[in-house]
Amino acid sequence: MNSRDRTYLIVSTIPKGMVLTYKMVAHYAHVTNPRLVGNYLHQNLDPISIPCHRVVNSQGRCAKTYAFGGLDVQLEKLKNEAIKANKSKIDLEKYLWWPHKKQIEQWEKRFNDY
Description:
This protein is mainly alpha-helical. 47% of the residues lie in helices and 7% in strands. The termini are close together.
């Protein structure tokens, strides 16, 4: 499985009402640079199944250049999932998703199956 597919797999499993950072997605997907994760998500062809609006920067800020309608659309999508933002910043202490060990093991198995 290539790094783009690993990134999409991770993002596709982020639960509604939770977020991950680009850095965390990069870590779990074994991508060397979090900016590459942003690049992949900007090219996402299936934003319904791969909810890239649930990925924010390491300070909790949403993307000014969100690929599917800009910052306001990303914030609205998060609001629809009961994620509250202060301006364009998400409270990571409240909304950051910490995948369980079992979830990480499932990802690793999928990575190795390809």
